[in-house]
């Protein structure tokens, strides 16, 4: 992963996931606020989205683990080399471990949508754990590198642990649009920062960055704040576009609810009852 | 900014903003408690105040960024000097970044007052992010200075991150007068401490402070506590003055509610409904 | 304060305050649970206790500050010695600053009981700030001492900041008996640990402790845990004794409520209304 | 305790306790969700389980303390050796202190089940304190060891303090199945990690681990994440097995409620009333 592509790929995934979360929670919020008072069951449309999302997470994690293992200079599923008394390609194993937890999160998402007895919030908890594990591994990852390299990776931890804390809060504070958008914002920030790390450590063109210069570290710190501003702007734009699209669509179709709702099943009202007893 | 004025200007702004917040949330609290039971819509008077406040925030941020950029020894919108392979005046850029986020907070405040579909709490979230970014940049700012200089700036972080945490809590715990006054208190503390930094590092008269003496650090630590006490006293006095003024005014005018309320619009009751679904 | 007595006096105060808090919140809890359902107004008996408590806090703080200032080798209200260009007895000034905040907390307690418009929780907030300031000053106090001396004071910070966090939580989570007893427990722990510091640093008899020996630090760490256990035991015993005394008293008198309640004033029901709007 | 067995015994206890917590809170959740709406009183069956659990905790703690004291090379209840001016076997005393707090937690559990006046949450608070004390002692325990030894013990702290924080949250957020399972998960993680520490520091066969090699630390960090995944898997499997067993049992017996409920006593409804006033 020690090249530009190795940072661009996870960056793209996190960016996409952030946008997807923004889109999803905006649609859910529009739905909830357009309903009459009381507990609202989300239409089956959202459930199908959960299946697709979970499925893609599992697929991407599986591919990620396989690639890390069976790439040309990968460990090929060997963990310990007894001949040389050394561990084999621990970096690849660590990346695989990170992917594994995002895969687990995908499984929890599908299970959460499929089985109504599962308590609401399991999917957020697993995402929170996945981000915690990512940050946890990165934290020890960074040890003993050049100052700028260590600094730029430790700034990533702000986005990772921020997202983890935000997701964990979502387990307890349900259906709060601000919190959901905050989580999405942390994902977009993480994605764009992965790109920034790629540009700084493996510049596509131009001279290499001096990894020990203090001014470079000052710029990188400030640049992280600009990424925060850009992430907030991107989330705001996405929400606005989704909002106006839905409003125009619903005005032309007559009523958005009719377009999305099919039949509230008896089981989903049972789910709502479960949720209520969990929220107490 | 490395002079007394450079610390007095932001100090004055934070002091004013703290007093303004105290005034605003006291008036809102008086309004809420003087209403009959149930969800109360704030009168349009408060909405206009939000517009003015947001507008001033945007204006001050814009002026601040322009001054930092186009002051005589400023970067003049140049970020990287390719000839000398060095960054241009990063300190000015960092200050500009801080102002940018307070500007964003102003935009969010106006948008929050103008568009009723925006979830309540967006304005508090952006203020919290603005303070976080300020503290974040200061944290790395301080690195490698004289002991007293580093210490006096790190004490500032207590006020900055305290205000950030307090504002973030306000996103989730709405209309809590204690929390709102606590945030205002942190702003006043930050403002008065900026003045203190100016007095210590760039004394207007008398001898320079010894930046390495341990006793000076002990005094500065204690002095910060005195600033806390003074900030609490100032907030208490402001609240008392506002309270008694409103009570006398309302007694002479007959009823304060009549004085402030015009007509509760249909849209604002729609807003209250939105807020309720967010608060769940 | 660098002697046994200087640690025994604050220790005794904190022990007494802890027991007093335990007693008070047990009585309030008994009262609340013995009332019929709905918002209960505390009887005037508790309000009088608040006045006494606040008054004692203010008196003790005032005496403490005066003693620190005008003791034989005190600063006598002089802060800076211009002749020697040095600060005068900063340690005494720091202790005075700590007392000041406990005095402010006493004023807030009385004001909170006297004026019904004050939002509930102001008294807890000021206690939390007082403990935070105490811990804040101790934190920088400890710097550059012998290992055991620094360690034993930093353990005190666990009790101080624990109490501060617990009091701060009480601002938002009202009338939770467990939280109130936890705060009381932290005060008792702090008090008994002050005694322990006195015994270790200024032993009344026997040899001096070796301030650099690692085994001594290990013992002191373990000893802190024993103090936690003892504090929990003391709180439990106090609660039990109060509980059984009240129950026997109420059985012999007929009804405890009659014994304590006089007449619920119109104003206190107004207070309850205020509290409800704050708690939202 | 400096051998494999000394880590396997506490590991087994924590594993068993984690599984037991998972089993218990799954059964309680099934019970709560199968009841009609409103406050549900748990059947006496659960109360008996609390007695058994508390009794076992007390018994195990007592045995643990006795073994630590009176083992062949133990301190035999002597704390200070006046002849050599040294502390006697502080490590054994520290382990005994940890056991003591788990014993206190057992007493609180029994008292909580026996006396209805005790506020709900006391049992969780004592478990939280017990874990805090364990982590607190381990934190200073680790000081000055070989890098891998220190690292592997500091990873244990993640599980210990995580469990402590999770239990503390349970005091305030009652009957939340996700939080209860999270606590159980932290116990299982702690148990399995104790085994891992045993395997690494005192390998049963094969060569010793190099305690200074950086690759070993990287592997151990990653291995901790695998333990997290395994703990989550074990909790999920246990919950599933319990769930399906209960469902099949309840289908064959007719109704699960009838099988478990005997007679809701008048006193337990009084308890529910107490809980409600605490939760406010």
From TrEMBL, chains A, B, C, D:
Major localization listed first in the record, in broad terms: membrane
Membrane topology designation: Multi-pass membrane protein
Compartments reported by the entry: Membrane
InterPro entries tied to this protein: DUF716 (IPR006904), TMEM45 (IPR042127)
Membrane spanning stretches: 12-31, 51-72, 98-118, 125-142, 154-173, 185-205, 217-244
Disordered: annotated segments: 261-280
This protein's UniProt keywords: Membrane, Transmembrane, Transmembrane helix
Gene Ontology cellular-component terms listed: membrane
Family: Belongs to the TMEM45 family.
PANTHER family: EPIDIDYMAL MEMBRANE PROTEIN E9-RELATED, TRANSMEMBRANE PROTEIN 45B
Annotated protein name in UniProt: Transmembrane protein 45B
Gene: TMEM45B
């Amino acid at each position: 992963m020690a090249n530009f592509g190795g940072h661009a790929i996870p960056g793209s995934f996190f960016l996409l996931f952030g946008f997807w979360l923004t889109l999803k929670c905006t649609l859910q919020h529009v739905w909830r606020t357009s309903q009459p008072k009381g507990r609202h069951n989300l239409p089956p449309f959202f459930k199908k989205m959960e299946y697709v999302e979970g499925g893609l997470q599992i697929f991407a994690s599986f591919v990620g683990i396989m690639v890390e293992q069976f790439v040309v200079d990968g460990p090929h599923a060997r963990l310990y080399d007894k001949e040389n008394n050394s561990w084999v390609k621990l970096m690849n194993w660590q990346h695989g471990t990170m992917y594994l937890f995002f895969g687990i999160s995908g499984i929890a998402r599908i299970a959460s949508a499929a089985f109504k007895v599962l308590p609401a919030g399991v999917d957020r908890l697993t995402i929170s754990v996945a981000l915690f594990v990512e940050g946890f591994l990165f934290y020890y990852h960074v040890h003993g590198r050049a100052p700028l390299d260590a600094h730029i990776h430790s700034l990533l931890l702000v986005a990772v642990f921020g997202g983890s804390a935000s997701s964990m809060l979502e387990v307890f504070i349900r259906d709060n649009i601000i919190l959901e958008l905050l989580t999405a914002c942390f994902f977009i920030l993480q994605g764009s920062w992965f790109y920034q790390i790629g540009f700084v450590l493996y510049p596509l063109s131009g001279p290499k960055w001096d990894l020990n210069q203090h001014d470079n570290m000052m710029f990188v710190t400030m640049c992280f704040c600009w990424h925060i501003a850009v992430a907030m702007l991107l989330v705001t734009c996405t929400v606005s576009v989704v909002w106006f699209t839905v409003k125009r669509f619903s005005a032309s179709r007559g009523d958005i609810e009719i377009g999305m709702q099919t039949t509230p099943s008896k089981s989903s009202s049972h789910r709502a009852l479960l949720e209520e007893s969990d929220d107490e």
